[in-house]
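[stage:ingest] chain + small molecule (flavin-adenine dinucleotide)
[stage:ingest] validated
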Amino acid sequence: MTVEREAMEYDVVIVGAGPAGLSAAIRLKQIDPDLSVVVLEKGSEVGAHILSGAVLDPAGLDALIPDWQARGAPVTVPVVQDQFYMLGPAGQIRIPNTLMPPLMNNHGNYIVSMANVCRWLAEQAEALGVEIFAGMSCSEVVWAADGTVKGVVAGEFGRQADGTPGPNHEPGLELLGKYVMLGEGVRGSLSKQVIARHGLDAGREPQKYGLGMKEIWQVDPAKHHQGRVTHTMGWPLGGNAGGGSFIYHVDNNQVYVGFVVHLNYANPYLFPYLEFQRFKHHPMVADLLQGGKRIAYGARAITEGGLQSLPQTAFPGGVLLGCAAGMVNVPRIKGNHNAMLSGIAAANAAAAAIAAGRSGDTLSEYDAAVRDGPIGRDLKRVRNVKPLWSRYGLLASLGLGGLDMWTNNLFGLSLLGTLRHGKSDAAATGKAADYKPIDYPKPDGKLSFDRLTNLSFSGTNHDPNQPPHLRLTDPTLPIRVNLPQYAEPAQRYCPAGVYEVVGSGIDARFQINFQNCVHCKACDIKDPSQNITWAVPQGGDGPNYPNM
Ligand SMILES: Cc1cc2nc3c(=O)[nH]c(=O)nc-3n(C[C@H](O)[C@H](O)[C@H](O)COP(=O)(O)OP(=O)(O)OC[C@H]3O[C@@H](n4cnc5c(N)ncnc54)[C@H](O)[C@@H]3O)c2cc1C
Ligand code: SF4
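[stage:predict] done
[stage:export] C-alpha cells:
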C-alpha cells in the first residue's frame, strides 16, 4: 500500500540525537548558521534511549565546544582513581596500574551520564537554531531510483497490530536532505539497510558486538569514592565468554555498575543477564552494594569490531556516524569521543560540499577523515585486542594484547599485523548438544533481581496496539530450528525477557513480548538463524532512561 506523505526539505537531516548526531548538528551550525538542520530522535526526549558507561574522554567535546566547562556541561566528575581487578569466585587480584598500557589510563577523563550530556548538547544545538524532534522514529529510507539516500520517513503513528492504518493513523513525513546523516548508534535499523544496499561492508571483517547491561545504585556514602573507576575481568564469565564489568563512582553517592558480555560466545545456554546478576554477589562488589538501592536498569549493545570491521562510512547521499559504523575503542570501552569526532568530521565535509553547490553525492572526504584522522589512529593501535581475546581467551589475550598495545603505544606498530575476527557473533553460536546447561543462582531480590523486576526500573513502555517491532522472517523457525538446535537462546540473551518459549513438545510456541523491549539490538545481532529484524516501534516508545 502506498502512503501519501508531505515532504520537508533541509540541508542536512540527522537520524539520532546521540553524541554523534548532536555533534554533527552543532558543528554544521557553527560553520554556517544559515544551514537548515534537523535531528530526529525515537526516544520520548533526548537522552531517553541513551545508555553508556560512561567514562568520557573529552577529546570530542574539546574539539566541538572548547569552553564547555564555562557553558555548564554536565561533565563535572574527573576520574581520580583507576583500578583493574582479575576476579576469582571468592577473591580478586589487583593488576598494578604500572603494568597497564598508558592508553588505558583514565587520567583527564570524566565520569558522566551520557544521557545528560546529550540533553545538554541538544540545548546547545537548539540555541544555534537546530530543529530537534524527539518521539520521531525514522522507519524508512527514502531512496532515489539509483540508490542515493534522499531522506527518511519519520513520525508514522497509529498502525494497528495487524499493520493496517487505524482510525488515528498519521502517515508521518518525508524529511529530505542534501545529505542524510545516520547517527542511530549500534546496529542501526536504517543503517543496516544502507550498508546492505551499498555493500559498505564489502571486504571488511564482520562487525562484532558486546551486550552491555547497566544499573545505577545509590550506595552508602561511607563506601562511595567519587571519581573512582574500577574494571574487572574473570569471574563469573571465566572461559564461557569474553567480557567484564565496570563500576564508576559518579557524584551524589551514585555508582554506575555495568557488565559487558561479548556476543561471540558459543554456549547457547549462557545467560548474559544472569551473569551480570551473579557478578554482583562477588564479595568485593557485594560489599559495595550492600545497604544500597538499585534505582535504574537498562541494556544496550556495543560495537566491538574496531578498525577491521569499520564499513565504508560514506554512501551516495549521506554518511554513517559514530556507532552506526562502529567506532568503539574496545579495551578502553570508549566510543563517545569518536562518535563526537565523527559528527564533527561529517559536518565539516557536508558544509564544505553544500557551500560548493554539491548535494546527494558521496562524501568520500569524510570517510578519509575518519580513517586517517584521530578516529582511525585511536582504533588502529588497539585493533588486535578483540581478535586475540576471541581466539586465545582472557589470560593469553591479556599478555599478548597488552604487549601489542605497548608496542603500538611506544613504537606505533604491531608485531602481529592486523588480525581477523572471522565469524559473525550469530555464526559463533554453538549447538546445544555440545554444551551443558549452566546452573544460575536465583536472584535474591536485594543484590540481584529477576529481569521483569529490573525492567520496571527502565521506564519501558510500548503501545500494545501497534505491529510488533521485532519481526521474524520465518515465524516457524524459532521452534522448528532454534529450539532443537540451540535451545532457542533468545530466551536467555534478551536482557528484557522479550522472548519466551511457551509450552513444550508439539504445543511449544514462540512468544514475543515486544512491549518489554529496551532497544538493545542483541536479538538482531545474536539470533543464530539471523531470523529476527529489529525495526523501530512508534516514536516515543521504548525505555525512558533517566541519567544512563
Ligand atoms: C554498556 C556500555 C558502556 C559504555 N561505556 C562507555 C564509556 O565508558 N565511555 C565511552 O566513551 N563509550 C562507552 N560506550 C560506547 C558509547 O556509548 C557509544 O560509542 C556511543 O553511544 C555512540 O554514540 P552514537 O551517537 O553513535 O550512538 P548512540 O549513543 O547509541 O545514539 C543513537 C541515538 O539514535 C537514536 N535512534 C536510533 N535509531 C533511530 C531511528 N531509526 N530513528 C530515530 N532515532 C533513532 C537512539 O534512540 C539514540 O538516541 C559504552 C556503551 C555501552 C553499551
Ligand atoms: S527484544 Fe531484542 S532489542 Fe529488545 S531488549 Fe530483547 S534483545 Fe534487546
